[in-house]
């Protein structure tokens, strides 16, 4: 890399975890993206791009957000699809020490290229690895194991509170991805972990699947 012998540098994951001799085998695996930086908190000069490869669950292809909602027993399924998305925000903000802010915006102009639904919250945020795992269909936020870093790491169900506040409002339990693909053709997740300076963005579309 043309690094002088007297020059300091670090190698980190995209979550800014420094690669050391002790954690090398744990953090450095096939397909992982690494940063070569002068310091662990160095600002990136430009955006980096990483392609996420995974084998979609067959239900993603067969049902793709429709099956459970069409089986909604004659009820209008759209509120339940929105509830799935709000459920994610309730979980992300469950440990906020201050105000929990969750906004739903219906965008009918061309600011996003086409009409869109935006759910915005001030929760803990997700790392790039957590966003990656969110993309994996039907990998429950409560049961991710092994190599997976949960998209709600450390989440603990709150003490009994009204269902509207405890991240259990999802009606069909099918998760945000099916809700997204019931409402539209693609999803864009933008997240900044609370303790990080980096902003991570994930884009998924039916065309990719």
TrEMBL record:
Organism classification: Eukaryota, Metazoa, Chordata, Craniata, Vertebrata
Chain's gene name: Smchd1
UniProt-listed InterPro entries: HATPase_C_sf, SMCHD1
Protein name, UniProt field: SMHD1 protein
UniProt xrefs under Pfam families: HATPase_c_3
Protein's GO biological process: double-strand break repair
